[in-house]
Amino acid sequence: MSHDLTGGAPSAGTLDEPGTPFLALDPGKAEANIARLRGRLDALGAELRPHVKTVKSVDVARMLFNGRPGPITVSTLAEAEAFAEAGFTDILYAVGIAPDKLGRVIALRERGVDLVVLLDSLEQAAYVARAARTGETRIPALIEVDCDGHRGGVLPGDPAARQIAQALVDGGAGLRGVLTHAGESYFADGPVALAAAADNERRCALKIGSYWPGNADRGIPRHSSIVLLFDQTVGRLAATVEAGTVNAYRTAAADAVAVDALARADASTLTVFGTGHQALYECAAVSRVRPFDTIHVVARSAERGERFLAELSRRGLCVRLTTAREACLDADVIVTATTARSPLFDADWIRPGTHIASMGSDAHGKQELPPTLLKKARLFCDLPTQSVAIGEFQNIADLVADGTLRLDALGDVLTGKAEGRRTPEDITVFDSSGIALQDLSVATALLNAVPNAP
Whole-model pTM? Predict the structure, then answer.
């Protein structure tokens, strides 16, 4: 027996001549599987919300809830309408909402169905809010977060998530929260791969960053951060990671990955602008992927510059203080690690083939590189939407938006989706403003490395 989701009566048949739609089910096995699933969920304190797109059967869905309706997820509004007719009133429509579907969404909500929609763009948020105002019915929404880069959704740390949330709230629509989605689960083969995909979906962290300019006079870093990791099975704090040093390592590691992917293989001279805490980690990291025989240091303070040179020398690196012009003219790789709000050097000082990593621009108004250089370079970053909002490329955001300049994510280069360096003469620029996924990954890795950690 199966239930007709088009609204007709159930259709009967045999395995030789089945009715349509048709579901063959062994009730005993199904009930045993449901009992095992229920036991596992109860132990975790988790709610069951089955995605009914596979069975498309009201009868089977009721089995999951002891013969009663319960919370479900659907892939089509036809499914939502059919299950609503059968008494299911807690429904998530887990496909990116389109404008032409909103009339049916409003109709279901006016019937008392708590139908929640899914979206991942400002455009969708705008027309959901507009439809809610026009129909005088609030339409609650979840923001989809793509937690592993394999499906649709906003990437973790993308400023667009906050903008979408604000648009929903300001527009009168309801914001229910976020829905994480690990698209890699579609390709997972075996229990280990499935467990890893599930872990991607439930990992959650909050990073708290601070910047105390006066710390430099105390001989301690100006930047500090704490990462709070949450246990998603109970919604409580699992661990606190003091991440000041961790953050320095992960930022420098990202720049080293970019140097390895984008700098010329024969690069032998490094120039670094800045003598602070982060600059030290940058020099150490990028020196592990290219055998630099000379490191030029450009410092605003001669005293700090000398202290910085002494520290690098203790690490076995060949360094010297140099003027900005001389350091740029001799550089194969340049790293800028400053708090500058105007260009640190002239674009004409940069030789063909140079790779530049800018990591100091991480807020509105900051700038380290001359825009004229960016207009003739190949541009890369952690996350394009963030880079043009608060990173170095905020100063050329209009040229990226209108297609004059192309901006590629470093991840796309690493996975072969975008080209990196094309010729030895290319000037490549990597904007390293950092993304939340890096903090989550490194904090989780540290926690996993601790015996008996939660």
Answer: 0.71
